[in-house]
Amino acid sequence: MRYPWQGNAQPMSEGKLADAAERIGCGVAEISAVIEVEAAGRAFLRDGTLIRRFEPHTMPGATTSWRDSLGIGPSRRDKMLGEAYERSPDAALRATSWGAPQIMGFNCQAADYDSAAAMVRAFADSEDAQIDGFVSLILDWGLDGAIRAHDWQTFENRYNGGGQGGAYARKIEAAYRRKTGEASPEVLRLGDGGAAVRRLQAALGVTVDGRFGPATEDAVRTFQERVGLPVDGLVGARTWEALKQNRDAKPKVQATKIDKIAARVIEYGTKGGAGAGLGAVLDRAPSGAMDMVFYGLAGVVLIVAAVWALRWARDTV
After folding, report:
1. Closest C-alpha to 219, from 247, 258, 252
2. 120 close to 5: Cβ distance less than 8 angstroms
3. pTM reported for the whole predicted model
């Protein structure tokens, strides 16, 4: 049997990602980061078939839960897809995520296809079609603003379903840092509070109280309009960059998984004394230094602190 995920497997054409980035209004690195997290940057498997992930819990009448399906290995998962396809082709295609952006078949219309089968056949023929489908879905779901702002948590909640509690967002940020060597600033919006908001208020020249209220939002919107940015009151990557250039702002950066590990090591390590030196190093590090370069320099200290931390911690991150 020839399956619809067996196609011509044409690789991406030159300039395709740049065109997609222009349509979304973001950089190439942002799209590449999503693809890396979703499918390890791949569009096709070694045998030339479309990369895919069958999600049995989304089949009609399924008794398998989402958590149960997490433990299914790739070979077994693909065999289940073939069996499901023989029973109900459309349901099987709709219950599978496809291509480099891993778009579920049941989201085919948001990707600008009339059916899951049509989307899968197009994706199997070319990587360009996969990127076009991704852009169409992002625009249809209104996630272009989240990508431009590097609002990875909002992106996780909608694109990935929000079931990972921020882990997916941290993976996107880590992938973005690997590609650019830059850390994304913390995204702020109405209702937020704390040190990051105080930095924002100082840059905007409004009352510094650490509360992102209506007055702060009005100031953000005024600034965005003045510098030619989309006026949405959301302080993301582009707004922070404009604030850095115009107001010498120094935003806090988003966390990645390695940040969480480092924080846990410090927490436990300082209880026994071995991590105290590391904590002091991190406290003195310049703003934004918790990126790949800094981790490399601090790696030896982290290893030593981790050994001591094991004396007090038995849990894993």
Report:
1. 247
2. yes
3. 0.78
Buried b (16+ CB within 10 A) or exposed e, 259-274: beebebbbebbbeeeb
Q: Residue 32: which of 109, 125, 126, 127 has the closest Cα?
A: 127
Q: Sketch the domain layout of the chain as residue ranges.
A: 16-158, 195-247, 257-309
Nearest to 234 by CA among 186, 185, 184, 189: 189
In Å, what is the CA distance from 185 to each residue of 85, 103, 140, 192, 282?
A: 44, 27, 26, 14, 18
Element (H, E) at 296: helix 292-309
Helix, strand, coil: what percent of the chain each, to 5? Answer: 60, 5, 35
In our burial notation (b when 16+ CB lie closer than 10 A, e otherwise), range 88-101 reads eeebbbbbbbbbbb
pLDDT tens-digit series, residues 44-96: 999 999 999 999 999 999 988 888 888 899 999 999 999 999 999 999 999 99
3-state secondary structure of 15: coil
Phi, psi at 181, each rounded to 5°: 75, 10
Structure tokens at 14: 């030159």
How many whole angstroms separate alpha carbon 124 and alpha carbon 127?
8
